[in-house]
Specification:
- The protein is an all-alpha fold.
- It is built from 19 helices and no strands.
- Helix 16 runs antiparallel to helix 17 (306-319).
């Protein structure tokens, strides 16, 4: 038993010396806390060794933790280039962040970076704090510093791209994302962000190339197929868009946005039965429910089912009162306009606005709607033109008959 106590003291004292010299070498007083704990543990254990005092088992466990475990962990971490002062300051900073005290967290990190300017994690956490404060330029600088220390920090590349986009510097963000994807082509978030930026800049062909490349590494990803469908929609390649929407719908039948766009394409092709089936499924999704009822009303009007159309359109208006203004501009609803309820714009319950759709989704659906109206308008004009030609021919025949009779 005495031998074990002697071994314990020797091991604890050895670790004490190692930590002490680390403090001297690094000129960092953070190690004093460990030294104090070790000193207390060694002192208590030494007293037990030279006296007849028998310490309780719980005290012995605590002494073991103070003298052996904690300094041993520090020794192992620093062998792996994880400095104890860095780790301690990061833990304290994270604690202050959880307490919603970014200023105190920043103070600890700045103190750490001042002593250890090449602290990779220090620069990363400082960048995150600047992000929370809305200081995007400062955050970018810190992420850049983190990348300089660790060139394989792909997440910081992505973070910089996001911040550049927020600063409306899309070209720089695109360059950063392209560089990131050359280094790590399977980085899905980078591909999706790059595709979004290109889409929003109406560079749809480039967006399809990005999404197609992403498919190589994520062949069963719903979002990629759905985004490809939207990009090809804006390129007016509706057949290709339809193919990608269908695959997306097969991958996840519970996500209805792809089905809503498929329904709109079916309307373009005049396939009312298929469109109706898709729109009926979309009634389960809150942010496209009003639009689904609106189109179901159109389908009912095309089939001559006026009472059904009235029911559908009234439900659509209850969900989104803005639809009423659109109805007033559509000739197809003129026969039932008197039967449509005028919404109370002061009633907040009737203003259930679609706020969950992304900007990209709204633009895609708007494009499909406008294309559908354009095609219908062209068809109506064709019909009018044919009627005019027919009438002109009949007039010419009548004039000719009158001349012959004279």
């Amino acid at each position: 038993m005495i031998t074990l106590k002697i071994i314990f003291n020797l091991l604890a004292f050895t670790l004490f010396i190692i930590v002490f010299f680390k403090m001297i070498k690094k000129n960092d007083t953070t190690y004093i806390d460990i030294l104090i704990l070790q000193f207390i543990g060694i002192g208590v254990n030494f007293l037990e060794l030279i006296s007849d005092i028998k310490l309780p088992i719980i005290i012995k466990i605590i002494l073991y933790i103070l003298c052996i475990i904690i300094p041993g962990i520090v020794f192992i971490l620093e062998k792996k280039n994880i400095l104890f002062p860095e780790l301690l300051n990061l833990i304290i900073a994270k604690y202050y962040l959880k307490q919603n005290n970014p200023e105190e967290a920043k103070r600890n990190i700045l103190k750490l970076i001042d002593k250890y300017p090449n602290s990779y994690l220090g620069h990363k956490v400082l960048a995150e704090i600047y992000e929370l404060e809305g200081k995007h330029t400062n955050a970018i600088d810190e992420y850049v510093r983190a990348i300089e220390i660790n060139t394989k920090d792909y997440n910081s590349y992505y973070k910089i791209s996001v911040l550049l986009q927020k600063l409306n510097n899309n070209e720089a963000s695109i360059d950063m994302l392209n560089d990131l994807l050359r280094k790590k082509p399977d980085y899905l978030q980078a591909s999706m962000l790059l595709g979004d930026i290109l889409y929003n800049e109406e560079r749809f062909k480039e967006a399809t190339q990005v999404y197609t490349e992403a498919l190589k590494y994520n062949p069963t990803n719903y979002d990629i197929y759905y985004n490809l469908g939207m990009a090809y929609t804006r390129l007016n390649d509706f057949q290709k868009a339809k193919e990608y929407y269908e695959i997306a719908a097969e991958i996840n039948s519970m996500l209805y946005n792809a089905k809503f766009n498929l329904a709109q394409i079916s309307m373009l092709y005049g396939d009312l039965g298929e469109a109706e089936n898709y729109f009926m499924e979309c009634l389960s999704k809150e942010d496209i429910e009003a639009g689904s009822y609106y189109y179901l009303a159109q389908i009912s009007m095309l089939r001559g089912e006026k009472s059904k159309a009235i029911n559908y359109i009234n439900v659509a208006i209850e969900l989104d009162s803005k639809i009423y203004k659109e109805i007033e501009t559509q000739p197809i609803f003129l026969p039932i306009i008197k039967n449509i309820k005028t919404p109370n714009l002061n009633d907040t319950l009737s203003l259930k606005v679609q706020n969950k759709l992304t900007k990209k989704e709204k633009l895609t659906q708007k494009h499909l709607k406008e294309t559908y109206y354009l095609i219908n308008k062209l068809n109506n004009n064709d019909i009018k033109m044919i009627k005019n030609i027919k009438k002109s021919i009949e007039n010419e025949k009548e004039n000719q008959i009158e001349k012959d009779e004279k």
